[in-house]
Amino acid sequence: MNYRHQYHAGNFADVLKHALLIPLLRGMQRKDKGFLYLDTHAGRGRYDLASAARGDTLERTPEWPAGVGRLWERTDLPAPVADYLALVKAFDRRNRTAAEAVDLSKPRFYPGSPWLAQALARPQDRLALCEKHPEEFAALRAELDFEARATLQSMDGYTAVKAVLPPPEKRAFVLIDPPFEDPREYAHVVGALREGLRRLSGGTFAVWYPLTERARVDAFFAELVALRPPPTWSAELTVVGPTSPVKMKGCGLVVINPPWQIDRELSPLLPWLASVLAQSPGGTADLRWLVPE
Length: 293
Known about the structure:
It is a single chain. By secondary structure, the chain is α/β, with parallel strands linked by helices. It has a single domain (about 5-290), classed as Vaccinia Virus protein VP39 (Rossmann fold), CATH 3.40.50. The protein is about 35% helix and about 20% strand. It is built from ten helices and ten strands. It has helices at about 10-30, 50-55, 80-95, 115-120, 135-145, 155-165, 185-200, 215-225, 260-265, 270-275; strands at about 35-40, 45-50, 110, 125-130, 150-155, 170-175, 205-210, 230-240, 250-255, 285-290. The strands form two sheets. An eight-stranded mixed sheet has the order 5-4-1-6-7-9-8-10, sandwiched between helices. Strands 2-3 form a two-stranded antiparallel sheet. Helix 7 links the parallel strand 6 and strand 7. Helix 1 (about 10-30) crosses helix 3, helix 6 (about 155-165) packs parallel to helix 7 (about 185-200) and helix 7 runs parallel beside helix 8 (about 215-225). The longest helix is centred in the N-terminal third of the chain and has 17 residues, at about 10-30.
C-alpha cells in the first residue's frame, strides 16, 4: 500500500467523514448499553499538518486549507459542525508546544477517526482499531496504546469484521474507510458488509467512499442493496462540478442501520458544507435513502 493519509489530513473528505461520524456515534449513545466501535482502516490517529505539507522528499500543496481551514474561524457553524470543530481544536491545542500555542489562527495537528471515537467513548464503550501498514500501526500505537478501552491490532481490517463480530455487547458501530488503491476495493467492502450483517444484523456500518466515477459508485450501491440490508442511506458531497478535470470530485458516507432519525439532524448541514467547501461552481450535497426505513 502506497497511500498515506497524512498528506490529505483535514481536507474536505475528512471534514465530511468526521462531521458525520461524531453525531452518528452520539446517536449510538442515546442508549445506555455500551457498544463496540470497530475501525477497519484506522490510520495513525494523529496527523501533523505541517509535516504532511513537506512530504517525504518534496514540498506538497497542503489540502487542509480547503477543508478544515475554511471552518477554523467561522462563527456560523451548524451545531454538528461546531461539535466536530470543537473536538478538532481541543486535539490541536493538546498536541502543541507552548510556543506553538501562541498562534491558534490555523490548525497544526488533526485527529484521525480513532482519536475522535476515543474522545467520545463512555466507560461502557469499547474500541477495536485495526491498521495493516506497519508504519501507520506503529504511529497509532504510540498515540492510543494507553487507552484501556481500546484494542489495537496490526491486521487487515476486513478480516477484523470476522474476528470481532458479534461482540459481547451485541451492539457495534463499524467504520470502513479504506484507501481505495485496490481495483477490487468495492468488492472487498461488499464482502465485509455481507459477513458483518450475517454476524450482527442489527449492527451499524458506515463506509466512506470517493466520488471519482459515478458508475462505480452506482454499481457499489446496487451490490449493497442486493444484500438486503436494514435501512440504509448515503450522504454525498461534491466540491466541483461534473465537468471539472479534478479526479476526486467529492466523497460520501453510506450508513447501514443508522441511529433512528439521525438523517433529520444531518440533512440540513450538508448544503451548508457544500457551500463552504466548494472549490468551483457545481458543488452539491445530498442525503438519500437507498433502503428506506
